[in-house]
Specification:
ligase, glutaminase activity, single chain, about 25% helix, 11-stranded mixed sheet, Rossmann fold, alpha/beta, 2 domains, nucleotide-binding, about 30% strand, about 400 residues, carbamoyl-phosphate synthase (glutamine-hydrolyzing) activity
């Protein structure tokens, strides 16, 4: 299988006027989004199909991308979600026996506009210094626009701050994955609010004995309760948590009703806001599969998979009271690179969350135990209610 490369020119334009001229990669045209970098050396298929990347032009810091192609087993969702794709050296051949098509062909099929042949290290260093910013990739006829025209188009694109993208990535109707046969005893129905959930997350939850009901992001509290859930899970997803007030109100209804709750990534930020905490935008975010995190409960350092541009504001040490009246809260996990809050735990209600991806597709599996911690919390809550 040979990758298709085009000599057609393409240009990456950042909102501060920075320009990088390279070659078109994938589909031709114009695409706009927030330019971010992902540091994983493997797992580009999982990155591309992660709904959390909706609205973002993703730069791979690993210089050589595409040699294992794309297959039908590893996608994390129903399509490629990135707004655009930036790589330095696309592989000219696909050399993995599991490949069903080349990465080039997959990008073209899903209409993903990319650029190759630019100094990705330079772009990464610029974003690390100046922060993530809007950008655009221009190829085909759009490559012939004047630099001023291209810059004006980029600067008119929406900012990620204040953007709600949940409706773009969520399922339109409820989808159910039964508890895995090998899981043993069935625990009950789990309500998963789909804010951009990944398939590996669903599989991990089903493997713990949950019948996983993936619900549309606009579900009401009455509709959620109608499935008689034993617990609620909020998934990862794109966008600004401050623009997701409805999801926060839904979560407050869940917490008020005493249902156990687990949230990851975007779900961690929404739990923070439901508890009464603030969120803020990180300068350039955490995106990769090699982020060190301290689990304060065990003292263990985990290498974890991240994809987030926003974080929760909370004191790192000691207990504090939830401003919204949910009792005592503590920060359970801390990022060791920059002291960002990476997890929250409620001490008086059955709720916790982490900022990263315990399903780790792709990535290390150091944090997979969190799914067991969630299952154990749900079972303990059920036992306490029986004995009350």
């Amino acid at each position: 299988m040979t990758a298709l490369h085009t000599p057609e020119p393409a240009v990456l334009v950042l909102e501060d006027g920075t320009r990088h001229v390279g070659r078109a990669y994938g589909a031709l045209g114009t695409t706009l989004g927030e330019v971010v970098f992902a540091t994983g050396m493997t797992g580009y298929q999982e990155t591309l199909t992660d709904p959390s990347y909706a609205g973002q032009i993703v730069l791979q810091t690993a210089p050589h991308i595409g040699n294992t192609g794309m297959n039908d087993e590893d996608p994390e969702s129903r399509r490629i979600w990135v707004a655009g794709y930036i790589v330095r050296d696309p592989s000219r051949v696909v050399s993995n026996w599991r490949a069903d098509e080349s990465l080039d062909d997959a990008l073209v099929s899903d209409g993903i506009i990319g650029i190759s042949g630019i100094d990705t290290r330079s772009v990464t260093r610029h974003i690390r210094s100046a922060g993530s910013m809007r950008g655009g990739i221009f190829s085909g006829e759009a490559a012939d626009l004047s630099p001023d025209q291209q810059l004006a188009i980029v600067q008119q694109a929406p900012q990620m701050s204040g953007l709600n993208l949940s409706a773009e990535v969520s399922v339109a109707a409820t989808e159910v994955t039964p508890a895995a046969a090998a899981a043993g005893e069935r625990i009950g129905n789990l309500a998963v609010l789909d804010l951009g959930v990944k398939q590996a997350t669903i599989d991990n939850l089903a493997a713990r004995g949950f019948d996983v009901h993936v619900l549309p992001q606009d579900v009401t509290i009455e509709q959620l309760r109608a499935i008689d859930p034993v617990a609620v899970f909020y998934s990862n997803g794109p966008g600004d948590p401050a623009a997701s007030g409805d999801h926060v109100q839904l979560l407050r209804g869940v917490l008020d009703g005493g249902l156990p709750f687990f949230g990851i990534c975007f779900g961690n930020q929404l739990l923070g806001r439901a508890l009464g905490l603030g969120t803020y935008k990180l300068p350039f975010g955490h995106r990769g599969i090699n982020q060190p995190v301290l689990d304060k409960t065990t003292g263990r350092v985990e290498i974890t998979a991240h994809n987030h541009g926003f974080a929760v504001e909370a004191p790192l040490e000691g207990e504090f009271d939830s401003p919204n009246g949910y009792g005592r809260i503590e920060v359970s996990h801390v990022g060791l690179n920059d002291d960002v809050v990476e997890g929250l735990r409620a001490l008086d209600i059955p709720a916790f969350s982490v900022q990263y991806h315990p399903e780790a597709a792709a990535g290390p599996h150091d944090a997979n135990y969190l799914f067991d911690r969630f299952r154990d919390m749900v079972i303990a809550t059920q036992e306490n209610r029986k004995n009350a």
